[in-house]
Amino acid sequence: MARTFGKRCRHILVIGACALVMLAIPTTVLKRVSAERVFKRIVIHPVPQSVRGIKADRDWREIIGHIYVLRFKISQPDLSVVLNSRPFSQVEWVEYDDGSLCWGDAPLSERRDSVMKIPQRIATKSFALYSSKGILGRRPWWFRLKHWEHPDVYVFEEERERRVQILIYNDKSAEAYFIERQFAR
């Protein structure tokens, strides 16, 4: 009787483990499919041929609207296709610092920080992207914009829709970030 009980327990554990594995596989596939679906919906449809390795993150709050962050590989010719899909404007710089994404047209300012004597950039626009405190969600492991030096930055703003789209391209690695922020109405 003890052997029968032990066999039943093992069978239940094996079935449970198999069920967990079966649940994990579709979740991984769904994440990949949804990243491509998000790309098609907010960047361009169809997905250009050179686009690979799409990673996506989304934060949606009824009060503040939504934020999508995508990272992907893309060739220079296909980047041009994306840029020609809407009226992007090129800006001088972008910076991710302390959870906020800032960008602007002004180069380094002649104004210097009074304590550190370091030249400062004056942000034309910015919004909160991620927070270490968990208010807006934590930064995914693949979000490494801070490590990119002098990327090309393009911005498209729709005031009527209260939406801004930012395309950041690193020509050294042929990678891009596409960030969409839509504010609640």
Features:
alpha+beta; 2 helices; three-stranded antiparallel β-sheet; globular; 185 residues
Please provide a written account of the structure.
It is a single chain. The chain has helices at 2-42, 76-83, and strands spanning 52-61, 65-73, 89-91, 93-97, 100-104, 125-128, 152-158, 163-170, 175-183. 26% of the residues lie in helices and 32% in strands. It is globular. It is an alpha+beta fold. The longest helix is centred in the N-terminal third of the chain and has 41 residues, at 2-42. It has one domain.
Largest sheet, strands/sense/barrel: 6 strands, antiparallel
Secondary-structure-derived class? alpha+beta
Counted up, domains total: 1
**Element-by-element helix/strand order:** HEEHEEEEEEE
Q: Please identify the oligomeric state.
A: single chain
Which regions are unreliable across 5 or more consecutive residues at pLDDT < 50?
18-33
Would you report the number of β strands? 9
Number of helices: 2
Shape: globular
- What's the pLDDT, averaged over the residues? 78
Give the spatial strand order of the biggest sheet.
1-2-9-8-7-3
Q: What helical percentage do the residues reach?
A: 25-40%
The gyration radius over C-alpha positions equals 22 Å
How far is it from the N-terminal to the C-terminal residue, by CA? 66 Å
Strand content: 25-35%
What's the SSE blueprint?
Layout: H1 2-42, E1 52-61, E2 65-73, H2 76-83, E3 89-91, E4 93-97, E5 100-104, E6 125-128, E7 152-158, E8 163-170, E9 175-183
Antiparallel strand pairs: 1-2, 2-9, 3-7, 4-5, 5-6, 7-8, 8-9
Quick gist of this model?
The chain is of the alpha+beta class.
